[in-house]
Amino acid sequence: MNILLLGSGGRESALAWKMSQSVQCEQLFIAPGNGGTSVYGKNVNISPNNFPAVKDLVLKEKIDMVVVGPEDPLVNGIHDFFLADESLAAIPVIGPKKEGAILEGSKDFSKQFMARHGIPTPGSKSFTKESLENGLAYLETHSFPVVLKADGLAAGKGVLIIDNLAEAQEELKLMLSGKFGDAGTTVVIEEFLTGIELSVFVLTDGENYVILPEAKDYKRIGQGDTGLNTGGMGSVSPVPFADEKFLAEVEKTIIIPTINGLKKDKIDYTGFIFFGLFKVGDQPMIIEYNCRMGDPETESVMPRIENDLVELFQATAQRKLKDVKIRISPKNAATVMIVAGGYPGAYEKGKSISGLDNVRQSTVFHAGTLSEGGIIKSNGGRVLAVTSLQDSQFEALQSATADAARIYFDGKYFREDIGFDLM
Ligand code: AMP
Ligand code: GLY
Questions:
Q1: Secondary structure of residue 221 in the 3-state scheme
Q2: Is residue 40 part of a domain?
Q3: Residues 376 and 36: beta-carbon distance below 8 Å
Q4: Which residues does ligand 1 sit against, CB inside 6 Å?
Q5: Residue nearest to atom 2 of ligand 2 (CA)
Q6: CATH number of the domain bearing residue 295
Q7: Do 56 and 144 share a domain, yes or no?
Q8: 111, 161, 287: which to mutate for ligand 1, most atoms within 8 A of CB?
Q9: Residues 359, 248 share a domain
Q10: Which one is predicted more confidently, 261 or 181?
Q11: Are residues 213 and 336 in the same domain?
């Protein structure tokens, strides 16, 4: 079959890498893709949010399935767009409709969903411009640190952790008067959790689900998890502290109630669900849903999935996931992200990348790159994801880090300590 993958990051490179290995995959198109995805298929330079252009491509290339990488086309309703169009309605879209994507698109909605279905999550209250005074008063009674979250999509920047009342009140005012644009029309004030974070993923057809390998991502720019938050500096899978007992608890208290909650609320969901979790003591709590895979988690998750990914997607589209047995490699994956100097602040693009052929024991997934006259250049903050799959976590971390050092571009930076806190 012909498949179209939407997106352009490291996550999409890992999805394209895995899909291109499928016996079911005749032609793979990636829109827009990046400097590395053309190895797995054909890049087409259209935006995933330009639905009419996606439609033209799908009809022209006789696409049989569309896989959506990032959240914004889903939140904007690309699946609904397909269903509403006679010429597209029969083509499966892997990724939820708007009614499901809102689990990520609105934090207020997702907190209400969790509360309604008894899913363990930190306590919270939501406020708008109209209820600002109540919000300010609520903060006076709150413990610190406190977490302020813009309700809508804010490109990963809409979460603030604040440790005193005056600043929290000031930020609440700023958020409700447009600091994050429309995303901050509603602000969720949430209890701060102390624990350790991990990401759990399922693929669901709305009735059944398969649990994919869990992962942990490293968000801070600096060694030892210090400094500013980024889109993610690396990841590991499996996660040693997520043992069988803990993962069984995640399934019982979070995954099953979520799938059942979707059914009860008549939200027909097909695609990935990303559970952003904290391990608090021995217990899992959820802080967020995403309606897509994580980045850079996907780069560590995909190499551990032994099933044919396209067959998993076909089973999802045909609502036959209950017949599928997921097979996970016991090996350890580690991903080290190479970023541009200055990231997550201002950084330069267009740096020529060398040394990609020197990599020995890893797969390099391109993120922010482009190919210009055969030369690979940097084209974003997060540039390359270097993933190694080895027998032990130590070996995986060592080889991913060693291979990251073999790649060069002006200003390049990577963390050398990804996952070492878990050893
Ligand atoms: P998000 O944008 O929702 O992924 O949140 C960004 C980061 O903020 C998370 O990865 C957590 O590290 C942190 N965070 C979010 N909610 C909480 C919370 N309730 N308690 C502690 N940290 C949180
Ligand atoms: N790695 C976190 C995310 O993809 O949102």
A1: strand
A2: yes
A3: yes
A4: 122, 147, 156, 159, 161, 190-193, 197, 219, 276, 287-288
A5: 294
A6: 3.30.470.20
A7: no
A8: 287
A9: yes
A10: 261
A11: yes
pLDDT of residue 312 exceeding 80, the answer is yes
142 and 208, same domain (yes or no): no
Residues touching ligand 2 (Cβ under 6 Å) are 217, 232, 290, 294-295, 297
Same domain, 256 and 159: no
**Residue 154: pLDDT band with limits 50, 70, 90:** confident
pLDDT score for 23: 96
CA of 60 to the centre of ligand 1 (A): 42
State the amino acid at position 113 in one-letter form. F
Whether 91 is covered by a domain: the verdict is no
Q: Which of 191, 226, 245 is the endpoint of a domain?
A: 191
**What's the CATH number where 183 sits?**
3.30.1490.20
pLDDT averaged over the chain?
Answer: 97
203 and 186 belong to one structural domain? no
In the beta sheet, which residues pair with residue 198?
277
Q: Report the candidate in 114, 120, 185, 187 with the shortest Cα–Cα distance to residue 148.
A: 187
301 and 217: one domain?
A: yes
Q: Please state, in angstroms and rounded to a whole number, the distance separating the CA atoms of residues 248 and 46.
A: 42
Question: Shortest CA distance to 5 belongs to which of 23, 38, 315?
Answer: 38
* pLDDT reading at 27 higher than 80: yes
pLDDT, average across residues 90-101? 98
pTM above 0.90, yes or no: yes
The predicted-structure confidence for 339-355, as pLDDT tens digits, reads as follows 999 999 999 999 999 99
Q: What local confidence, expressed as pLDDT, does residue 271 receive?
A: 98
Note the pLDDT of residue 420: 86
Q: Distance (Å, rounded) from C-alpha 234 to C-alpha 151? A: 26
Q: Cα-flanking dihedrals φ and ψ of residue 220, to 5°?
A: -80, 150
Contact 406, 64 (CB under 8 A): no
Last residue of a domain, one of 85, 109, 135: 85
Q: What separation in Å is there between the alpha carbon of 162 and the centre of ligand 1?
A: 12
CB atoms near residue 289 (< 10 Å): 23
**Which residue's CA is the nearest one to ligand 2's atom 4?**
294
Q: How far is the CA of 295 from the centre of ligand 2 (A)?
A: 5
pLDDT at residue 1 above 80? Answer: yes
- For ligand 2, the distance from its centroid to the CA atom of residue 294, given in whole angstroms, is 4
| pLDDT exceeds cutoff 80 at 156 | no
The answer to whether 3 touches 310, Cβ cutoff 8 Å, is yes
Band of pLDDT at residue 391, cut at 50, 70 and 90: very high
Q: Find the domain containing 270 and state its range.
A: 196-422
